[in-house]
TrEMBL record:
One of its GO terms (biological process) is proteolysis. One of its GO terms (molecular function) is serine-type endopeptidase activity. Residues 744-795 have a biased composition (Low complexity). This is Subtilase family protein. InterPro entries: Peptidase_S8/S53_dom, Peptidase_S8/S53_dom_sf, Peptidase_S8_His-AS, Peptidase_S8_Ser-AS, Peptidase_S8_subtilisin-like, Peptidase_S8_subtilisin-rel.
């Protein structure tokens, strides 16, 4: 965004100023006093209510019946003396807001902020009877807590994260060339950019963990006058420090996908000419409570934003139920805020979540509340996951580029059902901007959190093309342009054609602008600049003649290495997978796709690394039965290799197995407990001088599958073949397993090219025979902690959140072992820099 504002931008600013003046808040100065304060209005003005104005509501929001909220059984009990925040819902207008304020103060509370436009007041009280007393007041529809743990907002402000401006020479050897990432090709974003890159008059809010506006791809893109922090009691704070990131890179990553600059380096966003605004709605512990979200949406409506991206779900409930008293009021207050913003022409785009949950079939939740002690509770189809499940919100699931075929497929980590998915977009191996992690300013994250900003960026392009389009009209344009999913040949159960999972289909940015296929120029997309000789790498190429053969090759000087030939589909696209041929010398290497009939070609720089063979698992053997409790997984690898062992429960169904007991966290060197909340746990260790390794897990009775990867000189191997076994109660310790049919072969240690950059060792539970300190010292990683519930990090990179045992509400969760190891490495860097990555496996963030 240029420093000078266009006339249209000046008009927008004037409109925003008027809207801001009309957004009225009631700010309590303690029990017994409450004053009306307009956003941007001084406390002196608050003393004179006659000087304030109230904006009329755009539409009348429905009120939740108080009888429903009060009759439901509560799973939370207030504690006398502990501060708690509450959502108080009543009628709209100043008279109703004043009445609610009076009732709040009379019940021993104080008003934090009120929104007369929607009849919502956020209050705080230490009285256990507060909600009951206020609910008895005439005109109050519902009252309920916004969380389950005592409020500590603002008590200890977190130190800010290092900003990108502190890195003078960023190093990102695996970052694809700008515009050559797979998601750019798969969504036909390059074709869209040949028509438009958007408009600075369109504003996209990033409701997230804060945005680093010093990042080279975001500098000048974030408007500080439109940015806000809402993560202290849901009270708007426009100071820059309030919306900068403090513990998580998540918001900066999301912002880059939406609107990173097209400047010849780094990445390019879907809408690189749009204006961004930071809306910080995550606190330092990673929680996103209703009052934060309500504050953000009311701010977006008051300042005239066009689109807001929401890559999170609202804590502390994995599904908010209107018939449960601990959730009804918070859900209704949140719904009102989103309805109001939609009425002000703000389009909300939201991630569906990463649990793989079917919200139509779900009956039990044992993972909530995530800010306290989870306990089983019944859930029904009436329970929703805000914001993705709210009316008028465009819900987004994730897709991935399969490493084996290169096809773009539905990512099964996505939640679905319950009106949570309207469209899918790339969400696995998504490169984008981050605050510094060492000398790196970019990282690949996975999850529906990464899918949603692709759609938000596309919505910004549509808004630039159709300035008068309403949110509903933009949704229709995007979903009508979506590409239908297809099934692999012979597939019997295919989520790619299930509308409850896929919505309208795959995002097609160019089609949403009316651009037909095939594209007029060829493009190529990859998931990483690093290509391995032993592992498949997906390739997406567009702009070819339908039906023609496309040769995919490596070129180094005069040398040409043919990798594969694929046939362009009816859209002129190629989705394939390659293994690199080993190259020699230091000359640059290029991956090229060339059409045999059209002559169209696209290329991108890559680097080739010698691959590492998969390690072997020697125990347990396939079909073995082992006793419940502590089990040992052992095998062979290259001497000194770092191994990452992935344990999954193949028969675990998150929709019915929610009551599976939650294991305690493991300490360094202790067995890693199997994590039922994700259906996945990871332990790591080091192979000894002979190549032998072992790790331990704690498991209850069930069927399991285990696989292992190794990392040698910074190169990660493919996964070993999965070994299925069963943990059975009553099997004596030491019961022999079936003898293996073949002897495992120790893996030889390969020689990696000197140019390969070592990857940081993942942080996870060791659970193994090798001391954690030795592992950390050997690989330069911080002290490891176990993968366990209520901690932040990916499945293979779990770090306990400082001062908290709860999971974060911002997620980037993986769908494959490759992604898990990659994100683990990123988390290790972040922790080494003193930052906690606010990501958790199978959580939306």
């Amino acid at each position: 965004m240029s420093a000078a504002l266009s006339p249209a931008r000046w008009r927008r600013r004037a409109t925003q100023a008027a809207a801001t003046a009309s957004l009225v808040c009631l700010v309590g100065l303690g029990a017994g006093s409450a004053h009306a304060v307009g956003v941007g209005t001084s406390l002196d003005d608050a003393a004179n209510p006659a000087r304030l104005t109230v904006s009329a509501p755009v539409d009348q929001v429905a009120r939740a019946g108080s009888s429903v909220a009060r009759a439901a059984a509560s799973t939370w009990t207030p504690i006398e003396g502990e501060p708690m925040n509450y959502a108080v819902n009543g009628g709209t207008g100043t008279a109703a807001a004043t009445s609610a304020s009076t009732a709040i103060v009379a019940a021993g509370g104080r008003v934090l902020v009120a929104y007369p436009e929607i009849g919502v007041t956020i209050a705080q009280s230490t009285r256990a009877a507060f909600a009951t007393d206020v609910a008895a007041t005439a005109g109050i529809d519902s009252v309920g807590p916004t969380r389950t743990r005592a409020v500590t907002d603002g008590a200890t402000p977190p130190a800010p994260m290092p900003l990108a401006e502190t890195v003078s020479s960023p190093v990102d050897p695996d970052l694809p060339e700008e515009g050559d990432a797979w998601d750019v090709a798969a969504t036909r974003t390059a074709a869209a950019h040949r028509v438009t890159t958007g408009s600075a008059d369109v504003v996209v809010g990033i409701a997230d963990s804060g945005v680093d506006d010093t990042h080279p791809d975001l500098a000048g893109r974030v408007d500080p006058a439109l940015s806000v922090g809402c993560s202290v009691n849901g009270v708007a704070d426009s100071n820059r420090a309030a919306w900068l990131p403090d513990t998580s890179p998540h918001g900066t990553h999301v912002a880059g996908t939406v609107g990173a600059a097209q400047n010849g380096s780094g990445i390019v966003g879907v809408a690189p000419s749009t204006t961004l605004a930071a809306i910080k709605i995550g606190n330092a512990d990673g929680f996103i409570y209703p009052e934060y979200v309500i504050c953000g949406m009311m701010w977006a409506a008051a300042t005239g934003m066009d689109v807001v991206n929401h890559s999170y779900f609202v804590d502390p409930w994995l599904g908010w139920c209107p018939d449960q008293a601990s959730q009804a009021a918070g859900l209704e207050a949140t719904r009102r805020a989103f309805a109001y913003a939609t009425g002000k022409n703000v389009l909300s785009v939201a991630a569906s979540g990463n649990y793989g949950l079917d919200f139509d079939a779900r009956t039990l939740d044992s993972q909530s509340p995530d800010d306290g002690k989870p306990s089983p509770r019944p859930v029904t189809g009436a329970c929703t996951m805000p914001p993705a499940g709210l009316p008028g919100v465009l819900g987004v699931g994730a897709s991935e580029s399969e490493s084996s075929s290169g096809e773009t497929r539905y990512a099964t980590l996505s939640n679905y059902g319950g009106d949570t998915v309207d469209i899918v977009a790339p969400g696995i191996s998504i490169w984008s901007s981050t605050p510094p992690t060492g000398e790196s300013l970019y990282a690949p994250f996975p999850g529906t959190s990464m899918a949603s900003p692709h759609v938000a960026g596309a919505a910004a392009l549509v808004k630039a093309q159709h300035p008068n389009a309403s949110p509903a009209e933009i949704i229709t344009i995007l979903t009508d342009a979506a590409r239908a999913g297809t099934c692999p040949v012979g597939a019997s159960d295919c989520p790619d054609v299930d509308p409850r999972r896929m919505g309208a289909g795959h995002l097609d940015v160019a089609a949403s602008l009316g651009i037909t296929t095939p594209d007029t120029a060829a493009t190529i997309g990859i998931t990483s600049r690093k290509l391995s000789t032993t592992e498949n790498s997906p390739v997406v190429a567009t702009g070819f003649r339908p039906g023609e053969s496309v040769d995919v090759r490596l070129t180094q000087g005069e040398a040409v290495h043919h990798l594969t030939t694929a046939v362009a589909d009816a859209r002129g696209e190629v989705h394939t997978s390659v293994r690199a041929s080993l190259t020699t010398g230091t000359a640059p290497v290029t991956l090229t796709a060339v059409g045999s009939a059209s002559g169209a070609s696209a290329d991108t720089p890559v680097r080739v690394v010698a691959g590492v063979a998969a390690p072997a698992i020697t125990s347990p053997t396939a079909g073995a039965q082992v006793p419940v409790g502590v089990i040992t997984i052992s095998g062979t690898a290259a001497p000194g290799a770092a191994v990452s062992v992935l344990l999954t429960k193949p028969t675990w169904d998150p929709n019915v197995d929610g009551a599976f007991p939650q294991p305690p966290a493991a300490g360094p060197g202790e067995p890693v407990p199997f994590d039922p909340s994700t259906g996945i746990s990871t332990a790591r260790g080091l192979a000894d001088a002979t190549g032998a390794w072992s790790v331990t897990f704690t498991v209850p009775a069930n069927a399991y599958s285990v696989s292992v990867r190794q990392r040698v000189d910074g190169v990660v191997s493919p996964a070993s073949p999965a070994v299925a076994f069963e943990a059975v109660a009553g099997v004596p310790t030491g019961t022999p397993s079936p003898e293996p049919t073949t002897e495992p072969t120790p893996t030889a240690e390969p020689t990696s090219p000197a140019t390969d950059t070592p990857t940081p060792q993942p942080t996870a539970g060791t659970g193994g025979s090798t001391a954690d300190s030795a592992d950390a010292a050997s690989h330069g990683s911080p002290t490891a902690t176990a993968t366990a519930p209520h901690s932040t990090g990916s499945s293979d990179a779990t770090a306990t959140r400082p001062g908290s045992d709860a999971r974060a509400s911002l997620a980037a969760s993986g769908a494959s072992d490759v992604v898990i190891l990659a994100i683990a490495a990123i988390a290790g860097l972040l922790l080494a820099a003193g930052a906690a990555i606010v990501t958790a496996a199978r959580r939306v963030r």
